[in-house]
Amino acid sequence: RSSAKLVAPLGCLVSRQKHTLPDLPYDYGALEPHINAEIMQLHHSKHHATYVNNLNVVEEKYKEAVAKGDVTTQVSLQPALKFNGGGHINHTIFWTNLSPSGGGEPKGELMEAIKRDFGSFANFKEKLTAVSVGVQGSGWGWLGYNKEQGRLQIAACANQDPLQGTTGLIPLLGIDVWEHAYYLQYKNVRPDYLKAIWNVINWENVSSRYAACKK
C-alpha cells in the first residue's frame, strides 16, 4: 500500500519537470486588427513551442551533466538554457499582457506609480515605445519594478534575455520586438507595430503583477 501511495506524487513530480506551452487566454484572431491571427498562431504554436521543446531538452542534458559532475558541459549549456528558458518566460508573460479588451490607460495604484516615476502616462508610453523601437536586432522592451528602490523602471533586453534574471527587475509589461512578432503584418516598420500594440495592452494584468510584486 505504501508503494502505491507514492506513485501519484512521484508521477506529478516527474511531469512538473517538463515545461509545457501555455494556452492563450483568447483566440488567435482576437487581437485583430492590431495583431493578425496568422502572426499570433505562428508566434504561439511555432516560436514559443520551440522554446519550450528546446528548454526541456537542454534541462535534461543539464540534469545528466550535474549527475555526472560534468561542470564543463554544465557551463557549455548555459547559453541555450538562458535563450530557451528566457524565450519561455518572456512569452508566457507576453500573452497575458495582451487582451482583446485591452488598451486605454491603467487605473489605481499602477497609474499613480507611472505618474510618480515618469511624470505622466504619455511620457511613460513615449519612453517605453522609444526603448522598444531602439532595440538593435531582436529583443524586448520592458516595464519592470525595482524592488530595492520601490519604483518602476524601463529597460530593454537583447534576444530572449529574461528581465529579472539579467537585470533584477520584476517584469510587469513586456513588448516583443523580434521580427516574428510583427513582420507578416507590419513588415520592417517596427514603429507601426509598437503604435498598434498599445490598443491591446491588458492593464488589468499589468496592475495585478504590480500589486503582487509589492507584497
Automatic annotation (TrEMBL):
Positions that bind Mn(2+): 43, 91, 176, 180
Domain Manganese/iron superoxide dismutase C-terminal: 106-209
MF (Gene Ontology): manganese ion binding; superoxide dismutase activity
Reactions catalysed: 2 superoxide + 2 H(+) = H2O2 + O2
EC number(s) stated in the UniProt entry for this protein: 1.15.1.1
InterPro entries in the cross-refs: Fe/Mn_Superoxide_Dismutase, Mn/Fe_SOD, Mn/Fe_SOD_BS, Mn/Fe_SOD_C, Mn/Fe_SOD_N, Mn/Fe_SOD_N_sf, SOD_C_sf
Top class in the EC scheme: oxidoreductase
Keywords noted in UniProt: Manganese, Metal-binding, Mitochondrion, Nitration, Oxidoreductase
Residue intervals of the Manganese/iron superoxide dismutase N-terminal domain: 18-99
Needed cofactors: Mn(2+)
Subunit structure: Homotetramer.
Family assignment from sequence similarity: Belongs to the iron/manganese superoxide dismutase family.
Name under which the protein is recorded: Superoxide dismutase
Species per Swiss-Prot/TrEMBL record: Vidua macroura
Gene that encodes the chain: Sod2
